[in-house]
Specification:
This protein is of the alpha/beta class. It has 14 helices and 15 strands. The chain folds into two domains: 242 residues, Thiolase/Chalcone synthase (Peroxisomal Thiolase, Chain A, domain 1, 3-Layer(aba) Sandwich), CATH 3.40.47.10; 148 residues, Peroxisomal Thiolase, Chain A, domain 1. 33% of the residues lie in helices and 21% in strands. The strands form three sheets. A ten-stranded mixed beta sheet has the order 5-4-6-8-1-9-15-14-10-11, with helices on both faces. The chain has a three-stranded mixed beta sheet with strand order 2-3-7.
Length: 412
């Protein structure tokens, strides 16, 4: 593959419940720090969630924030941080060739709930409905807010891919670079899910909403005592560019994206299908030009639901059970489920392994469910595995959408 087809990551901007920089996120993952806490949500009272605390006005004004959305603000923050991390000067960049591709689980729920809450105080008089509602709730909002903030005029859109969206946004960026549609892509995923009582209520109705007296122990993927999902917010956007361009400008190269796949279960709205998950992972690995035995770390999707964890574990066994050197971990156990941002954030949490040779743990594993047992599941404490060359990042979503991304250490 030529340098014009090879695509690399040169910048990361993120916000998560355990840190707003890649370095802080990595440090807290290795230290076993949970970001789950108790919050109050409309009509439901106390729930457990992972909230972010980034500086909303670092890259936008107060007026811009009031006019926009939490998801848009998250995306603006992450985009600004990613460009800075990559050393990109937009004043010296052709902004018509910069694209913004952001994965989302849903968008507009928070804003609609908020507007209804306002007008119900005025006997549902719609004259109190905000004139900002339409631009706030169109599906392309987070990506569009980024383009307006940065003044970039290349293509922008969001990718609705449920909880596979973070990977899907990154994959879209890679594809647009390879097609020659853009020279620089800002790609990943964002979520404002903690602002919506409806999301909490729906998971509660499914009996899939986690609770624990100690919030930090609530998210328990693969554990026998797991009780469900911890809803979180967050964002992670990457600067991705063609290898030749990155080398030419002397950019820091954090990883090369060498394989990816997306497919559909075509079977059930919420229960994953192990055969399709297996196919998705195997396809991404094959496209990377490697075998399962070459993968050093698998970042799992597992959300701490009963069937979801079991089905992913079954797929992991089919692909990796014979590999003594493949380590498996989970980031949601620290931060909860960041929905559209999940896949992008979880990849970012593992990228540090290329530098420190560590596989971060899956915390809150008191007793592994026998149905979720997989070889080399990193439990409670990080494991030093030495040189890491390949990481596979899984991210799956409702309606049976699956994604997997393989990244490689860049050694020149």
């Amino acid at each position: 593959m030529s340098d014009t087809e090879r695509v690399v990551i040169t910048g990361v901007g993120l916000t998560s419940p355990i840190g707003d920089t890649p370095e802080t996120l990595r440090t807290n993952l290795l230290a076993g720090v949970s970001g789950v806490s108790v919050i109050e949500t409309r009509f439901m009272g106390k729930v457990l969630a992972g909230e972010c605390h980034f500086d909303e006005q670092k890259h936008q004004t107060r007026k811009e924030r009031r006019r926009g959305t939490r998801a848009g603000s998250t995306a603006i923050y992450c985009a600004g941080e990613a460009l800075s991390h990559a050393g990109i000067d937009l004043e010296k960049t052709d902004r018509s060739l910069v694209g913004v591709f952001i994965g989302i689980t849903e968008h507009g729920t928070v804003e609609t709930e908020n507007e209804i809450d306002v007008i119900r105080r005025y006997d549902y008089d719609t004259k109190y409905w905000s004139h900002h509602h339409n631009p706030r709730t169109v599906a392309n909002n987070p990506a569009g807010e980024v383009t307006i903030n940065l003044g970039v005029s290349g293509p922008h859109y969001t990718i609705g891919a449920a909880c596979a969206a973070g990977n899907a946004g990154l994959i879209q960026g890679v594809q647009m670079l390879r097609l020659g549609e853009v020279d620089l892509a800002i790609a990943g995923g964002v979520s404002e899910a903690t602002g919506s009582f409806g999301i909490f209520a729906s998971f509660a109705a499914q009996e899939a909403l986690a609770w624990h007296d100690d919030p930090t122990k609530a998210c328990r993927p693969f554990d026998k005592a797991r009780t469900g999902i911890v809803v979180s917010e967050g964002g992670c956007l990457y600067v991705v560019e063609r290898l030749g361009d990155a080398v030419k400008r002397g950019a820091p190269i954090l990883a090369e994206i060498v394989g990816y796949a997306m497919n559909s279960d075509a079977s059930d709205p919420v229960v994953p299908e192990p055969g399709r998950l297996t196919e998705c992972m195997n396809t991404a690995i094959r496209r990377a030009g490697i075998g399962p035995e070459d993968v050093d770390i698998v970042s799992t999707h597992a959300t701490a639901t009963q069937l979801g964890d079991e089905q992913e574990a079954e797929a992991l066994r089919r692909v990796f059970e014979k590999n003594p050197s493949t380590y498996i971990n989970n980031t949601k156990s620290f931060i909860g489920h960041a929905m559209g941002a999940a896949g992008a954030l979880e990849l970012a949490g593992n990228l540090g392994a290329f530098d420190d040779g560590m596989a971060h743990a899956t915390i809150n594993l008191s007793e592994v469910d026998p149905k979720c047992a997989v070889r080399n599941l990193v439990a409670n404490e990080p494991v030093e595995i030495g040189k890491v060359d390949y990481i596979l990042n899984n991210s799956f979503g409702m309606l049976g959408i699956n994604s997997a991304v393989v990244v490689r250490r860049y050694d020149g």
